[in-house]
Amino acid sequence: MEKSVLIAGAGLGGLATALRLSGKGYKVHIVEKNSQPGGRVNQIKKDGFTFDTGPSFFSMSYEFKQFAAECNIELPFSYYSLDPLYTVNFRGNPKTYFLYKDIKKLAEQFIEKEPDFEQKMHRYLDRFLRFHAPNN
Ligand SMILES: Cc1cc2nc3c(=O)[nH]c(=O)nc-3n(C[C@H](O)[C@H](O)[C@H](O)COP(=O)(O)OP(=O)(O)OC[C@H]3O[C@@H](n4cnc5c(N)ncnc54)[C@H](O)[C@@H]3O)c2cc1C
User: Fold this and answer.
1) Has this prediction a pTM greater than 0.70?
2) Type and span of the H or E element at 118
């Protein structure tokens, strides 16, 4: 007998789960409380302006590549690397902080606030990669 699944919410999580399960032969229904899918990945249009309500970049592209491979679909976009990823300004502080991928360059941004930033970052990333990176 065909198994049925009901997914509440058509955000990225619900949509990805639906694709994965339907690829495994499940009959999938999605219910969404809003008038359009996407969840936080959406836009608000007002007075001629368009505002993104959520993400502006993918920080874990390998997840999407793995997802596309598992679901046997082609992603409708290609990636390009942003460097710096983004910039941050704090009110009352004229300095612009650049979020670089290069940890040495990134650490230089914060040298006055956190001189051991680089070592801490490496420690954090080592721990993170041990648990989360693919093939680890
Ligand atoms: C301002 C902002 C910036 C972000 N920037 C980034 C970024 O740059 N890069 C990045 O990777 N991530 C970013 N994120 C995070 C990313 O948007 C979310 O992690 C992701 O979209 C969450 O997807 P989700 O499916 O888990 O949840 P949601 O997108 O919240 O989807 C949940 C869905 O379930 C629906 N729902 C809830 N309850 C019910 C119910 N009872 N019945 C039916 N439907 C229901 C909701 O309407 C919604 O459509 C950002 C988020 C925000 C808010």
Assistant:
1) yes
2) helix 117-132
Task: Provide DSSP, 13-77.
Answer: HHHHHHHHHHHTT-EEEEE-SSSSSBTTS-EEEETTEEEE-S-SS-S-HHHHHHHHHHHT---SS
Tokens of 115: 């001189």
Ligand 1 lining (C-beta closer than 6 Å): 8-14, 31-34, 39-41, 54-59
Spatial separation of the C-alpha atoms in residues 67 and 30, rounded to whole Å: 19
CA angle 94, 95, 98 (to 5 degrees): 145
Q: Which amino acid is at 19?
A: L
The pLDDT mean for the chain works out to 92
What top-level class would CATH report for the domain 1-80? alpha beta
